[in-house]
C-alpha cells in the first residue's frame, strides 16, 4: 500500500558529479541537501555546493562512502529525512537500503527486496523468465558442483560465458571457447566472485559474439504504475565498462524495439518496482533476437541521454516517487525528440593501457553551450582512491550524425591542464567509421584499433604554435630577451634577430623560434616552418594571424617535472606538447645516462596490491614485479631491465606516492 513520505532534507551518499547532479534535482523541488565526504574530498565542488556537509572518514571507500554506520550517523546529526545513494558504492546494496528504512529514513530507490532480487543474476533471470522476458540459454541452477557445471557446459556448447551471480562490471566473468578450458574458467570465476562480491556462485550462458548492449529506462511508483522512457545503446565498451552511450538505440528494428520496451515495463510491474531503474538486454543482430541481461536498480551513469530526448528529469521523479507521489505521466505522454550522446571523461591515458592519471587540475575550461555533468573544477585534486571518471559530456541534436559532429566539436574546445584525460581517445572513437556506421559491438573495441591506439602526432603547424606559445609565456611583452632564462641564444642587443630553442622530449634537434619585427617563425627540426604575425598570449589564449588569417586558440602552459607542458587547441582536438628550454635539456641529458634504469618506481600514486618477487630473484625485462591498484584498476609494473632483485621498498597494502621507489635490481651483465 502506498504511503506519503514527507522529507525536506536529503543526504546524498555519494560523491563527485553524481552528487552535484542530485543536488540540482533537490534544489528544483526546494529540498535541502547534505553532502557526506571523505578526507580526500574535503575541498571538492560537491561539498561546497551542499547546504550541509559532514566528513565521514578517510579517503579509502571502506572508511567513508561504504561506511554504513557513518552515513547513518551523519543523517541523524543533520536531521536528514531521506538518503539518495546515487550510483556505485552502496546504491545497489540491499542491506544498505534496509538499514536506511530501519533507521526511519526514506531510501530514494526501490525497496530492499527488489534490490536483492535483481542483484542476484540467477534470481533476476528467473524473475525475467516468469515475466515472459527472453533470457539467454544457459544454466542457473542451485547445484554448484564442478561435475554439474561441467555437464551443463558440455550440453550448452561453446562459446559460453561463466558469470558471477552477484557480479558486475565484468568481474567474475570468463569466456570459454574450448570446453577443455571450462574447469579453469569456473575455478577462476568463482575465486574472483568470492573476493569481489563475497559470493562464489556462478552461472553459465551462451555467448553471443558481435552482440549489442541495449537498455530500457523504466519508472515505477508505489501505486502500481510503470512506464518506459525509451531505450539507449551502450555497446561501445572496454572491459565491460561503457565509454560512449546514446539514446535512442540506433539501427534497431521497430518490432524488436517495441518488444524490448514492453518487456521492461512488464518486468518492472511483475516485481512491484518503485523508482527509476534500467532493464539491460543483449541484442544479437545476426539472429534478430534480444535477451535479458540484468536490471540496474538505481540511477544509471548514462541517464542524461534519456533526459535529453524526453525532457523528463529522472532525479526529480526519483524524489517525487520516494515521497509517495503517483506518476502523472501516461505512456502516451512520453515523447522522443532527436538523438543524444554521452561521452565519459576520465582521468586516464588510453595510449598507455589506460593508465590512471592523478594530480591537480590546473585548468578546467569546458565548452560552452552543451551539458556537462562534472565533479571537478580548476584546483581539484584527482587522487587514486576513486573511479577515474570525472565528468560526462552530453550532446543533444536532431539526429545521430549531428550529435556525433557536435560531440567532436565540443571535445575540440575542451581545455584541461594538470591531469591527462581520455578526450583524444573518445574523439577517435566518435570519428571512427565503424562507430559512425554502427558496426561496433560490445567486444569490438579491438576491431576499431587492431594495432592499438596512439595519441596522434601534432601537425607541423601545431607543434610550431606550441613552441611559440611557450616562447611568449617565457618572454612577456616588453621584456628584454636577456631576461628570458635559457631559451635565448642570439638576441637583438647583439645586433641579430632574437632566436630561441625549444627541445621536445623525444628529439635531439630543437624547434627554433625567431623574431622578425612583429612576427614569429617556428622552424621544426625537419625544416618545416610556421610564421605568425602579431602573435600574442593573453591568459590561456594564443592569437595572431597566419597568412593574413586571424586565429585564436586555447593555449595553457604549465610546468611539469623537468619540462614545460603546452596544452594547445587544434583542429584535431586538444594536443599536449612537452618542451624543454636550454637548462631543462642540459638537465635531461645529464640525468639520462646516470642510472635509474635499474630502479622500478611507481608511475602514479596508489596502493600496492601484490609484490611478486623477493630479494635474490632473477627476473627478465618485462616480468611483473609489483601490481599497483589505482582508481579501481590494477596496473602490472614490469621490470625495466633483466637482473637480480636486491632491494624491495614496499609491501602489499602500502600506499605509495608517484615516482616512489619500489624495487631495486642489480643489472644482469652482458656475456
UniProtKB/TrEMBL annotation:
<dbReference type="InterPro" id="IPR050856">
    <property type="entry name" value="Biotin_carboxylase_complex"/>
</dbReference>
<dbReference type="InterPro" id="IPR011054">
    <property type="entry name" value="Rudment_hybrid_motif"/>
</dbReference>
<dbReference type="InterPro" id="IPR011764">
    <property type="entry name" value="Biotin_carboxylation_dom"/>
</dbReference>
<keyword id="KW-0547">Nucleotide-binding</keyword>
<protein>
    <submittedName>
        <fullName>Acetyl/propionyl-CoA carboxylase subunit alpha</fullName>
    </submittedName>
</protein>
<dbReference type="GO" id="GO:0046872">
    <property type="term" value="F:metal ion binding"/>
</dbReference>
<feature type="domain" description="Biotin carboxylation">
    <location>
        <begin position="6"/>
        <end position="450"/>
    </location>
</feature>
<dbReference type="Pfam" id="PF00364">
    <property type="entry name" value="Biotin_lipoyl"/>
</dbReference>
<dbReference type="GO" id="GO:0005524">
    <property type="term" value="F:ATP binding"/>
</dbReference>
<keyword id="KW-0067">ATP-binding</keyword>
<dbReference type="InterPro" id="IPR005479">
    <property type="entry name" value="CPAse_ATP-bd"/>
</dbReference>
<dbReference type="Pfam" id="PF00289">
    <property type="entry name" value="Biotin_carb_N"/>
</dbReference>
<dbReference type="GO" id="GO:0016874">
    <property type="term" value="F:ligase activity"/>
</dbReference>
<dbReference type="Pfam" id="PF02786">
    <property type="entry name" value="CPSase_L_D2"/>
</dbReference>
<keyword id="KW-0092">Biotin</keyword>
<dbReference type="InterPro" id="IPR016185">
    <property type="entry name" value="PreATP-grasp_dom_sf"/>
</dbReference>
<feature type="domain" description="Lipoyl-binding">
    <location>
        <begin position="591"/>
        <end position="666"/>
    </location>
</feature>
<dbReference type="InterPro" id="IPR048429">
    <property type="entry name" value="MCC_alpha_BT"/>
</dbReference>
<dbReference type="InterPro" id="IPR005482">
    <property type="entry name" value="Biotin_COase_C"/>
</dbReference>
<dbReference type="InterPro" id="IPR011761">
    <property type="entry name" value="ATP-grasp"/>
</dbReference>
<dbReference type="Pfam" id="PF21139">
    <property type="entry name" value="BT_MCC_alpha"/>
</dbReference>
<dbReference type="InterPro" id="IPR000089">
    <property type="entry name" value="Biotin_lipoyl"/>
</dbReference>
<dbReference type="InterPro" id="IPR001882">
    <property type="entry name" value="Biotin_BS"/>
</dbReference>
<dbReference type="InterPro" id="IPR005481">
    <property type="entry name" value="BC-like_N"/>
</dbReference>
<feature type="domain" description="ATP-grasp">
    <location>
        <begin position="125"/>
        <end position="323"/>
    </location>
</feature>
<keyword id="KW-0436">Ligase</keyword>
<dbReference type="InterPro" id="IPR011053">
    <property type="entry name" value="Single_hybrid_motif"/>
</dbReference>
<dbReference type="Pfam" id="PF02785">
    <property type="entry name" value="Biotin_carb_C"/>
</dbReference>
Amino acid at each position: 500500500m502506498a504511503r506519503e513520505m514527507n522529507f525536506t532534507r536529503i543526504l546524498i551518499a555519494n560523491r563527485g558529479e553524481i552528487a552535484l547532479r542530485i543536488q540540482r534535482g533537490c534544489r528544483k523541488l526546494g529540498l535541502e541537501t547534505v553532502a557526506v565526504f571523505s578526507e580526500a574530498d574535503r575541498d571538492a565542488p560537491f561539498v561546497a555546493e551542499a547546504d550541509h556537509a559532514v566528513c565521514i572518514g578517510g579517503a579509502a571507500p571502506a572508511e567513508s562512502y561504504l561506511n554504513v554506520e557513518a552515513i547513518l550517523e551523519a543523517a541523524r546529526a543533520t536531521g536528514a529525512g531521506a538518503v539518495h545513494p546515487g550510483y556505485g558504492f552502496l546504491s545497489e546494496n540491499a542491506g544498505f537500503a534496509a538499514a536506511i528504512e530501519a533507521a526511519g529514513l526514506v531510501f530514494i530507490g526501490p525497496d530492499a527486496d527488489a534490490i536483492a532480487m535483481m542483484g542476484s543474476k540467477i534470481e533476476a533471470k528467473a524473475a525475467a523468465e516468469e515475466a515472459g522476458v527472453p533470457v539467454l540459454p544457459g544454466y542457473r541452477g542451485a547445484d554448484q558442483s564442478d561435475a554439474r557445471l561441467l555437464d551443463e557446459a558440455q550440453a550448452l556448447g561453446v562459446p559460453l560465458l561463466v558469470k558471477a551471480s552477484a557480479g558486475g562490471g565484468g568481474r567474475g566473468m570468463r569466456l570459454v571457447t574450448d570446453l577443455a578450458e571450462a574447469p579453469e574458467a569456473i575455478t577462476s570465476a568463482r575465486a574472483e566472485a568470492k573476493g569481489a562480491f563475497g559470493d562464489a556462485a556462478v552461472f553459465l550462458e551462451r555467448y553471443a559474439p558481435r552482440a549489442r548492449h541495449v537498455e530500457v529506462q523504466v519508472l515505477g511508483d508505489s501505486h502500481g504504475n510503470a512506464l518506459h522512457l525509451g531505450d539507449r545503446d551502450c555497446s561501445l565498451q572496454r572491459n565491460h565498462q561503457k565509454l560512449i552511450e546514446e539514446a535512442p538505440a540506433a539501427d534497431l528494428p521497430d518490432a524488436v524495439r517495441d518488444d524490448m520496451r514492453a518487456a521492461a515495463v512488464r518486468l518492472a510491474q511483475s516485481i512491484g518496482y518503485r523508482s527509476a531503474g534500467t532493464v539491460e538486454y543483449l541484442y544479437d543482430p545476426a539472429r534478430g533476437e534480444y535477451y535479458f541481461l540484468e536490471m540496474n536498480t538505481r540511477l544509471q551513469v548514462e541517464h542524461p541521454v534519456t533526459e535529453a530526448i524526453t525532457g523528463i528529469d529522472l532525479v526529480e521523479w526519483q524524489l517525487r516517487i520516494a515521497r509517495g507521489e503517483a506518476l502523472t505521466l501516461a505512456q502516451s505522454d512520453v515523447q522522443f525528440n532527436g538523438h543524444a550522446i554521452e561521452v565519459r571523461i576520465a582521468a586516464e591515458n588510453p595510449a598507455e593501457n589506460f593508465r590512471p592519471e592523478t594530480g591537480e587540475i590546473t585548468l578546467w575550461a569546458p565548452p560552452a553551450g552543451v551539458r556537462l555533468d562534472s565533479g571537478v573544477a580548476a584546483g581539484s585534486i584527482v587522487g587514486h582512491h576513486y573511479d577515474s571518471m570525472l565528468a560526462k559530456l552530453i550532446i543533444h541534436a536532431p539526429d545521430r550524425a549531428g550529435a556525433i559532429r557536435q560531440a567532436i566539436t565540443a571535445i575540440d574546445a575542451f581545455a584541461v591542464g594538470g591531469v591527462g584525460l581520455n578526450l583524444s581517445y573518445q574523439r577517435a572513437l566518435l570519428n571512427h567509421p565503424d562507430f559512425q556506421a554502427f558496426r561496433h559491438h560490445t567486444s569490438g573495441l579491438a576491431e576499431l584499433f587492431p594495432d592499438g591506439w596512439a595519441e596522434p602526432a601534432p601537425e607541423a603547424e601545431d607543434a610550431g604554435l606550441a613552441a611559440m606559445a611557450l616562447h611568449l609565456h617565457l618572454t612577456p611583452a616588453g621584456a628584454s630577451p636577456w631576461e628570458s632564462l635559457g631559451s635565448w641564444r642570439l638576441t637583438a642587443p647583439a645586433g641579430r634577430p632574437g632566436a630561441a630553442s625549444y627541445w621536445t622530449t623525444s628529439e635531439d634537434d630543437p624547434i627554433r623560434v625567431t623574431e622578425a619585427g612583429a612576427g614569429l617563425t617556428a622552424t621544426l627540426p625537419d625544416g618545416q616552418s610556421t610564421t605568425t604575425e602579431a602573435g600574442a598570449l593573453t591568459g590561456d589564449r594564443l592569437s595572431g594571424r597566419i597568412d593574413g588569417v586571424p586565429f585564436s586558440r586555447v593555449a595553457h602552459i604549465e610546468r611539469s617535472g623537468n619540462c614545460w607542458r603546452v596544452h594547445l587547441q587544434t583542429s584535431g582536438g586538444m594536443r599536449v606538447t612537452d618542451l624543454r628550454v636550454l637548462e631543462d635539456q642540459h638537465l635531461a641529458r645529464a640525468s639520462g645516462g646516470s642510472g635509474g634504469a635499474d630502479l622500478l618506481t611507481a608511475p602514479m600514486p596508489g596502493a600496492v596490491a601484490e609484490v611478486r618477487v623477493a630479494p635474490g630473484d632473477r627476473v627478465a625485462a618485462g616480468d611483473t614485479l609489483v601490481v599497483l591498484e589505482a582508481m579501481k584498476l590494477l596496473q602490472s609494473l614490469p621490470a625495466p631491465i633483466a637482473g637480480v632483485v636486491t632491494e624491495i621498498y614496499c609491501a602489499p597494502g602500502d600506499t605509495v606516492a608517484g615516482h616512489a621507489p619500489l624495487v631495486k635490481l642489480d643489472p644482469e651483465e652482458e656475456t
